[in-house]
Amino acid sequence: MSSIQRYGVSVLRHCTQARMLSSGVLLNRTTELPAFGWNPVSSGTSAVASTEGVYSSWKIFCLKRVEAAQSLVSLQPSLSRSFCSEGKRFKIYTKSGDKGRTSLYDGQRRRKDDPTFEALGDVDELNSALGLAHEYCLQEEILDTAKQIEEIQSTLLEVGSAIAIPLTSLSSAKLSRVKFNADVVSVTEQWIDQMDEVLPPLTGFILPSGGLPASALHIARSVCRRAERRVVYLVANELVEESVGQYLNRLSDYLFTAARYTAFKLGKQETLWSKRMC
Questions:
Q1: Are 16 and 37 in a shared domain?
Q2: CA torsion, ordered 36, 41, 47, 50, to nearest 10 deg
Q3: Where is the Cobalamin adenosyltransferase-like domain (predicted)?
Q4: Which end of the chain has fewer CB atoms at under 10 Å, N or C?
Q5: What is the pLDDT of residues 105-154, one digit of tens each?
Q6: Section 248-273 average pLDDT
Q7: Which of 22, 24, 67, 17 is nearest to 38 (CA)?
Q8: What is the pLDDT of residues 227-255, one digit of tens each?
Q9: What is the signed CA dihedral for 117, 122, 128, 132, rounded to 10 degrees?
């Protein structure tokens, strides 16, 4: 496990301990907390403070670190390699994967061609493709689509989190904390409907075309379809929530519609497919 992964696991472990402190279960283990960079005195809590006071102070301390730890570790453990905290910098390269194996969030070591890492890689590739599409949209001042793409890129980190934490590896209590928010499916559908209202109806098959933003979005759509196919396998084996696959399915529909929408906004002609006469 890399240094950054150990940091994230420590954050989550100590947060669990903090919750237990409130019920007095770990009163004799508060000495562990200063070792993690926190002490009651510097945090505004006296050394002889009540259990509830220690818990509250520790909770505030944790909340400042959990978001970074989850986004950098539990969301994409195979991709996040650098983290700075209180002057300490971890190197980007860890060498832990030189033999073709890497770690999931729960510490499992697996081959890098494991279906879970294949899915994570495709989701990461999709996010990169969307980064390019986003830049093209900004250049052409299609700001509504650019804003939506930013939200999608953030959601894809949550998708990565859902993929990187197999349903079979954690307790139901822990899984509830990282459950994928299926509401994004309906939000994506709303975006599709809004764009579809202004688009001319399709009269045939179109080829990927319509300017740089549209073409980049078509590339992202293709990568999204591949990511969805990877996730279908994981869902079928009860390793990932079904809603993750539903989101990727809807996202590919969004990307197709967004490609058409950006072409329409720029007044670009889409290329219609025509059967070749041999």
A1: yes
A2: -90
A3: 92-261
A4: C
A5: 767 888 888 889 999 999 999 999 999 999 999 999 999 999 999 999 99
A6: 95
A7: 17
A8: 999 999 999 999 999 999 999 999 999 99
A9: 170
Q: Which two tokens stand for residue 198?
A: 């202004």
Kindly calculate the radius of gyration of the chain based on its CA atoms and give it in whole angstroms: 23
Residue 46 predicted with pLDDT over 50? no
Range of the domain at 42: 3-100
- Torsion 275-257-128-226 (CA) sign: negative
Are 246 and 202 within one domain? yes
Distance between CA atoms of residues 26 and 225, nearest Å: 48
Last residue in a domain, options 54, 77, 100: 100
173: amino acid identity, one letter: A
Closest CA to 61 of 104, 123, 18: 18
Distance CA 47, CA 214 (A): 60
CA distance 15 to 135: 38
- Token pair, residue 202, equals 């399709």
Let me know how long the chain is. Answer: 278
Q: Is there a single domain that holds both residue 41 and residue 133?
A: no
**Please, are residues 273 and 206 in contact by the beta-carbon 8 Å criterion?**
yes
- 56, 22 contact by CB (below 8 A): no
